[in-house]
Design goal:
The chain has 14 helices and 25 strands. The chain is α/β, with parallel strands linked by helices. Helix 6 (358-376) runs antiparallel to helix 10, helix 6 (358-376) runs antiparallel to helix 14 (523-531) and helix 10 (442-458) packs antiparallel against helix 13. The longest helix has 43 residues, at 180-222.
């Protein structure tokens, strides 16, 4: 994001330890130097948004460490060469002048998540080998000259093939093809499925009846005072020393509250929150952690308690700090003051007719920045596994609180067998480097905070129509005259002062979501810049 001009220096090829080369959003011209494709450790190559011409060198296939390749928005010509099998996050060749057909060997990129070939001059059919892209989440083929039918991609893959008049999408109709043999096969499968389901339901009903009968007997043996469905407290501990809370919190009442699903007021990726009324009439939030899930690495109760004791000593108005915790056989529960007025996500995106004013948005940004700066500034920095507008609670419209601060201590990403977003937080907030480092870092938290800033500036969610907000904002902000399109005009046009401050905050947000982790500012600098934004 500078105004660098001229050709790309060939001397980059001398940097044999280079892992990331990001020259995006400049004005480089000429062809890509051949030597760059001889760098053995290059994992991320981003030349997006320049004026680079010529063909993509066939030697790109020799980059066996390459994870992401982004050559979008240039003037590249020729055909698409064979790509390295190591590509796993993004292959973006959109908005160029590439011609020829889509090579079938792209189908061997089994770990590739996003493939964007839109706005080129590609022709011919979409190869069926693309069905082999097992990790694909987004495929963009729009505005080419493709023909034939789209392959039968999984339902979880978002496909955009608009702007190809001769390309048809028969996926939804494929099951209705009038082939009698296929119909008979489907009928048999359906009959078998129905019979199997009925048998399974009968077995399930028998098991439930048996389990209920045993539970009834057990409750009767224990005496009439035990309530069915209330978790048995193994251990309950206060973290706070405040007599207001130690006298007000009753662990038994907390467990009664979580046994009733009507008390749920919020669910996040890893937690469920319940509203609990105590005997003295005070109300607390009870957060349930399902620690039977293998990704939770709580270890011994002593270790878990020690981690919470450390977090409980934190004191910052913009951070949710636990007051007490309860352990049961299968779960851990954390208790907090109940000051819940929704989340930042609710405030921005719940469809309400009232548009949130800039003063409130700026206050939220400043509050979250203060809380995050505080957490990062500890002797042992507190990192956030899932920082998003859904995990920032509101005490009022202007008072945010960062939640789920304990997750980074008790979740082990290596033990998850799910997708990246299962253990890396919320899609749209996950820093790009997490795909290959699988490590929580302060720079990664800064990226997530940058996305939150963009949500406050644009009024848009972190992902819409398959496009991540950060990437959309970066692409529009490449040219100063386009930055106006990023801002929420319902707010930016209220006054010149608001407009000026929003542009200043936009610059801060863009620096936070820059691709390179090393190029992102520290949170203490982000807070300073926000406080001084005019």
């Amino acid at each position: 994001m500078n105004n660098l001009r001229g050709s790309i220096p060939s001397t980059f090829s001398d940097l044999t330890n280079l892992s990331t080369l990001n020259l995006s959003l400049n004005s480089f011209t000429g062809e890509i130097p051949m030597g760059i494709f001889n760098l053995p450790k290059l994992s991320n190559l981003n030349f997006q948004g320049n004026k680079i011409s010529g063909a993509i060198p066939v030697s790109v296939s020799s980059l066996q460490s390459l994870i992401e390749l982004n050559l979008a928005n240039n003037s590249l010509t020729g055909t698409i060469p064979k790509m390295p099998t190591s590509l796993s996050t993004v292959l973006n060749l959109s908005h160029n002048h590439l011609s020829g057909s889509i090579p079938s060997n792209i189908g061997v990129l089994k770990d590739l998540e996003i493939l964007d070939l839109s706005y080129n001059n590609l022709s011919g059919p979409v190869p069926s080998s693309l069905e082999g892209l097992q990790s694909l989440t987004q495929l963009v083929l729009s505005y080419n000259h493709l023909s034939g039918s789209l392959p039968a991609f999984r339902s979880s893959v978002t496909v955009d093939s608009s702007g190809n008049p001769d390309l048809t999408d028969d996926r939804e109709n494929s099951n209705d093809a009038p082939t009698s043999g296929k119909t008979r096969t489907h009928t048999v499968v359906i009959i078998v499925a129905i019979v199997s389901s009925l048998v399974g339901l009968c077995l399930l009903a028998a098991i439930i009846m048996l389990a209920l009968s045993k539970r009834i007997y057990r409750v009767e043996d224990e005496g009439p005072s035990t309530e069915v469905g209330v978790c048995q407290v193994i251990d309950g501990h206060f973290i706070t020393m405040s007599s207001v809370h130690t006298s007000g919190i009753d662990f038994t009442y907390a467990m009664k509250a979580v046994s009733n699903p009507n008390n749920i007021f919020l669910k996040t990726r890893f937690c469920t929150y319940y509203k609990a009324m105590m005997p003295n009439g005070s109300i607390y939030s009870v957060k349930k952690l399902d620690w039977s899930d293998k990704i939770f690495q709580v270890g011994s109760q002593e270790k878990f308690g020690h981690e919470l004791e450390v977090l409980g000593k934190l004191s910052n108005s913009s951070v949710m700090v636990p007051l007490a915790y309860v352990l049961t056989e299968d779960n851990a529960y954390l208790l907090y003051e109940y000051v819940y007025k929704g989340t930042v996500f609710d405030l921005l995106h719940d469809g309400r007719s009232h548009v949130l004013d800039w003063t409130s948005r700026y206050s939220i940004a400043l509050g979250v920045a203060q809380g995050l700066t505080f957490l990062h500034g500890r002797t042992q920095p507190v990192l956030l596994l899932d920082l998003s507008t859904r995990t920032i609670h509101l005490k009022s419209t202007n008072e945010p609180q960062i939640g789920d601060i304990e997750l980074y201590k008790i979740i082990d990403p290596s033990k998850s067998s799910g997708s990246l977003s299962t253990i890396a937080g919320t899609v749209g907030y996950i820093p790009p480097e997490y795909a290959y480092t699988m490590r929580l870092t302060m720079a990664g938290n800064v990226y997530s905070f940058g996305v939150i800033l963009l949500e406050l500036l644009t009024g848009k969610p972190s992902v819409s129509d398959g496009m991540e907000l950060a990437k959309w904002a970066l692409s529009l902000s490449a040219r100063p005259e386009q930055r106006e399109q990023v801002l929420d005009t319902r707010v930016s046009r209220t006054s010149l002062g608001v407009h000026s401050q929003m542009l200043s905050v936009l610059n801060i947000a863009l620096s936070c979501v820059t691709f390179s982790p090393d190029a992102r500012p520290k949170m203490r600098n982000v807070l300073r810049l926000l406080a001084n934004a005019k």
